[in-house]
Amino acid sequence: MKTRSITLYVNGEKHTLDVPVNRTLLQVLREDLQMPDTKYGCGLGECGACTVLVDGEKAILACLALAATMDGKHITTVAGLEKDGKLHPVQQAFIDVAAIQCGYCTPGMVLKTVSLLSHNPRPTEGEIRKGLEGNICRCTGYAKIVKAVQKASKLMNQDL
Amino acid sequence: MSTRILPEFDLLMPHTVNEAVKILAKHKRKAAVLAGGTDLLVVMKDGYRVDYVISLAEISGLNSLKYDSKQGLQLGAMVTIADVVKSKVVKEKYPALWTSASENGSPQTRTMGTVVGNILRASPSGDCCCAVLALGGSVILRGPKGTREVPIDKFWLDYRVTARKPDELALALKIPPMPHGTVTAFTKMTRTTLDLAKVNAAVRLDMSQKKCTQARIAVGAVAPTTIRLPKTEKLVSGKAITVQVLKEVQQSVSTEIKPINDVRSTAEYRRDVTGVLVRRVMEQALGGI
Questions:
Q1: What are the chain B neighbours of A134 within 8 Å (beta carbons)?
Q2: Residue A103 needs a FRET pair 20 to 30 A away by CA distance; which of A50, A155, B18, B201 works?
Q3: Residue B1: is its pLDDT beyond 90?
Q4: How far apart are CA B172 and CA B68, in angstroms?
Q5: CATH of residue A104
Q6: Which positions in chain A touch B8 (Cβ < 8 Å)?
Q7: What is the pLDDT of residue B2?
Q8: Domain with A122 in it
Q9: pLDDT tens, B28-41?
Q10: In this predicted model, what pLDDT tens digit does every residue of A82-126 receive, in sequence order?
C-alpha cells in the first residue's frame, strides 16, 4: 500500500486520516495535524527533540516512527500535558526553576521527564541524567533541567 | 537527502509470520523488514532505497522474552532493547547482555529498537552483537522451506552481511543457559552516551573451582564484524585468572586484532585500548581481582 487509513489518538482526541506510508509520525503531528509543539531536531534519533509518549509512559522518537504503523496508538505531545488550563507539575517545575532558555529541547525534555517519573518517582541525580541522556540541550548545560526534574518529583510526590 | 523526509516505498503489514515469509519469498532483496525503525528509517533518510517495507508491527507473538533454566533465553524479533533492560532475569543471568542493552543508543531508541535488529544490522560495533557473541547463542530464521537455526559464531559473514537469506525472516534469538558459576560482562569505549562504540568487549568465563574452564571473548569495531579472540581465549582456559594471566591477555589481544582507521577512531588507538578493555571486562566479570 502507498497510503493507509489510520486512527491516532493524540492528547485524548481521535483523528482519522489517510497517510502516505512514508510519512513519519513527526510529519503527521506537525504538518497534517497542525500540532507544532513536537519539534524536529535531527530527524535521525540522536537529539530527542521529537520525543512523544505512547500510552502516557513510553517515550519514542516521532522522527523514526512510520505513522502508518501507529494505527490505534495513544500519543501524548507536550501540549497534551495541560489539563483544564492547569499545567502539569513537570511543566510547572521547568518554569519555576527557569530550566528553559531557547525552549527547543523543552517539549522533548518535559515528556521524557514525565516518562522517567512514571517509572521512577524519586530518581537520584544520576538516574535523572541517565534518564535524559537521549535528549540534547545546547543552551542550559543541563543543570537547571536536573533541578526541574527534582522539583517535579517533589511536587508530584507531595500528596503521597 | 533531507532527514525530515523518507523516500517512497510500498508498505506491507502482514498479520502472521507465514504471510511475512511469503512476501519476503516474493520480493527478496527488494524488500526490507521494519521492526523498531531506529536503523532502517535512518538509512532510508540517508538515501537507502527499497521497493517494499515489511512492517512486523501487526504480527502478534514476536515480542516475547522467555527464560527457563533448561532452554535459556529466547528473545522474539520484536523484543526491544528496553524490554531487555527491564528484565530482571536478563540482569541476573546474562549481565553482559543486560549491560550492552543499557548502554545501547538512548532511552528512546531503546524503547523502539530491537535486539534481533541489532544482530541483523551486523555492524561490527553492535553492542548487543558483542555481548551475544561472548555468551553464545543462535538466530532462528524462517524461510519458505521451513525454520533453521544459525549459531551466532556463523551468523556474521562480512561487514553488514549475515547468513540470513533474502527470503528468510529472523524470528528470534536464543541464548543458552549459563552453567553454574559462569560470569559474564560487557564494556564499551565511547565519547559519550548515544555514541557508537569505538571499541567494545564482552566476555563469558565458565568457572570451576576457581579455574576458568572455557572463555569466550568478543570484541567489536576492530574487524569487519564482531569477532572472537580464539588465541587469547586459549591463554585463559584451564587456568586460574591471576593478575599475571590478565597481563598476558592484554598483550595477546593486541596481536590478535587488525583494526582500521575510521571516523570513530584510529587503528593505533584501537590497538592500544582493546587489550585494556578486554582485561577490564574480565575483571568486571570476576567481580574484581
A1: 105-109, 193-194
A2: A155
A3: no
A4: 16
A5: 1.10.150.120
A6: 2, 20, 22
A7: 82
A8: 89-157
A9: 999 999 999 999 99
A10: 999 999 999 999 999 999 999 999 999 999 999 999 999 999 999
Cβ pair A43:B2 closer than 8 A:
yes
Rg of chain B in Å (alpha carbons): 19
Are A42 and B2 an interchain contact pair (Cβ–Cβ within 8 Å)? no
State the CATH number of the domain containing residue A7.
3.10.20.30
B65-175 has which CATH code? Answer: 3.30.465.10
Neighbouring C-beta atoms of residue A26, cutoff 10 Å: 23
Amino acid B194: pLDDT: 86
* A12: helix, strand or coil: coil
Residue in A46, A60, A68 nearest the CB of B111: A60
Whether residue A57 is predicted with pLDDT greater than 90 in this model: the reply is yes
Residues in chain A: 160
Chain B residue whose CA is closest to A19? B11
Amino acid at A104: Y
Q: Quick check: A112 and B2 CB within 8 A? A: no
CA distance B12 to B26: 12
pLDDT value, residue A159: 60
Output the nine-digit C-alpha cell for A101.
532558555
Closest-CA residue in chain A for B52? A1
Residues of A in contact with B1 (CB under 8 A): none
